[in-house]
Amino acid sequence: MSEVEHYDIVVVGGGPVGLASAWHAARRGARVAVFEQFAFGNEQCGTSGAERHWRLQYTEPDLCQLTGEALPLWRELERAGGQQLLHAFGSLWFGDVDVATNEGKISATARTMDQLSIPYEWLTAADIERRYGFADLPRHFEGFVQPDGGAVDVRATVDGLLRLSESAGVVLRAGESVQELVPDGEGVRLRTPRGWCRAGKVVLANGPYVNRLLEPLGARLDLNVFEMALVTLRQRDPRARYPFWFVFQEPTEEDTNLFYGFPPNAWQDTDVVRVGPVFEVNPLDDPEQATGSPDPRHVSRVCDWVDRHLPVVDARPLARETCLAVLPADPERQFFLGTAKGLFDGGDNVVIATGGWGFKFVPLLGKVCADLCVDGATDYRVERLMLPDPTRP
Ligand SMILES: Cc1cc2nc3c(=O)[nH]c(=O)nc-3n(C[C@H](O)[C@H](O)[C@H](O)COP(=O)(O)OP(=O)(O)OC[C@H]3O[C@@H](n4cnc5c(N)ncnc54)[C@H](O)[C@@H]3O)c2cc1C
What we know:
8 helices, FAD/NAD(P)-binding domain, D-Amino Acid Oxidase, Chain A, domain 2
């Protein structure tokens, strides 16, 4: 690679957020390259498995509005890629309705849905057992099903974005890690094992690795990286259907006691289901400490819950994997999104998009990053999510 190689925008990280940023920017006429340290479509960082939860509901009204704004962008991506990506089979939240989690609170979320006229049905433990086949739920459990929620097809999203980026002229470079950034007033120089290149703007969509590039510049995002378990189980009756479910429970002394699961994928002919714990415990000091093997106690905890409460699923694991969750240390913050203005010299030429439960926002995050690179601003109402600007009082 020669020093003169120059792009309008270089995206660091070829996960879904990086690819969506590249696609949106290339459609606006920018010359864009994406550098991915592993293969495109790898499952070694924050994106793995077949599905992610799609939901409209949030405790915070602005985030509910943002999922509403993400929806037309998903529809646009589906049309452009010629494939359905969002599958609505309902989103069921139940448990202790006042437990506060980083997903939100059931009771407060119902109030927000009332305010915003988002439809849902309130259910008791008995309703949930009768309707969906759960068993032996504590009698005080309650919750709601929101019928427009469900799942996003992860692999079709990533494959589609890869194809669309390629046809929009994005230069896609797999197996090439960006090792250093040198921002200045005009743009950013980037070093990879193949040499240096230059970009007017850089998007850091490199998930759990973001601080590796920021720390040498004297900046650091306050985040934790957790290696979370994903467990594959077989459903005893392959025809049984129920919504995506998330159970909110009081934390135990050891963990956050939160579990979720998907029904068999609507888009695959399968009788397997995926369940997981959401335990924010034992953060990694560095993403390379990830082993790919989940903590056996976490696997047992989620399988025990399924064994006791979801008899349609055989709780003996068929597969155990992990995925890296990148969560802001501040529970009020959902993502890190925005320019690095004020974080270091030349920071206004660096846009950061990482962290959080962000798959449902992929096309929106991509569009916001492209807007910030091309226009320096975005019309999406993401102010509360933006990176703090240390130069502002
Ligand atoms: C267990 C689990 C469950 C989740 N469930 C949900 C859910 O139900 N709903 C939801 O909306 N979200 C969910 N999420 C979050 C969602 O999966 C992530 O927000 C999203 O997949 C992250 O995509 P990304 O493109 O930001 O990052 P990643 O997929 O992590 O991609 C980052 C890429 O950058 C590359 N990279 C890193 N450093 C460099 C470098 N220096 N040079 C070049 N390349 C580099 C990496 O190799 C990687 O491919 C979940 C996450 C986990 C872990």
